[in-house]
């Protein structure tokens, strides 16, 4: 899909920049682009992208921070360099899984939000704090492992 969109944009830009049709043709193309932008399928995708961006912006930094703290803690402490490296690697793998899970959860929430907004449903869930839940799970797992 990304390739098709890029191709269309590239062709349109090339036509406009390379054409001798002038301002009138440019205005026609611009008008068609605006019409396409306001179609339902395009706006549904825009809503999905906005919802994902918003939820990911809330979720991912907290999970990343917790993961970084776990890796730093694992790399510190006593033991040989190889033991510290192994602990840090294990913590990094675990943190990467947590980030992937958080992003996946965020994506699912974004899709639900986009579906709700596209259908006109404005209900809100009190349980949409995926990032906070992930951070709490991470803290409890870290505390239990220490």
TrEMBL record:
Lineage start: Bacteria, Bacillati, Actinomycetota, Actinomycetes, Micrococcales
Bias-annotated ranges (Low complexity): 115-129
Protein name: Protoporphyrinogen oxidase
Regions of compositional bias (Acidic residues) in chain numbering: 101-114
Source species: Microbacterium lushaniae
Renumbered residue ranges of the record's region Disordered: 90-146
């Amino acid at each position: 899909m990304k390739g098709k969109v890029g191709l269309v944009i590239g062709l349109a830009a090339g036509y406009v920049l390379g054409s001798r049709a002038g301002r009138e043709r440019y205005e026609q193309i611009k008008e068609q682009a605006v019409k396409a932008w306001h179609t339902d399928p395009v706006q549904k995708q825009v809503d999905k992208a906005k919802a994902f961006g918003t939820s990911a912006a809330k979720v991912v930094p907290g999970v990343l921070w917790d993961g970084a703290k776990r890796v730093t803690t694992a790399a510190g402490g006593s033991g040989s360099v190889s033991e510290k490296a192994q602990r840090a690697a294990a913590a990094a793998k675990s943190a990467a899984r947590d980030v992937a899970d958080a992003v996946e959860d965020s994506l699912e929430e974004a899709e639900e939000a986009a579906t709700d907004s596209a259908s006109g449903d404005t209900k809100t869930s009190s349980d949409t704090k995926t990032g906070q839940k992930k951070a709490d799970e991470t803290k409890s797992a870290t505390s239990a492992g220490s």
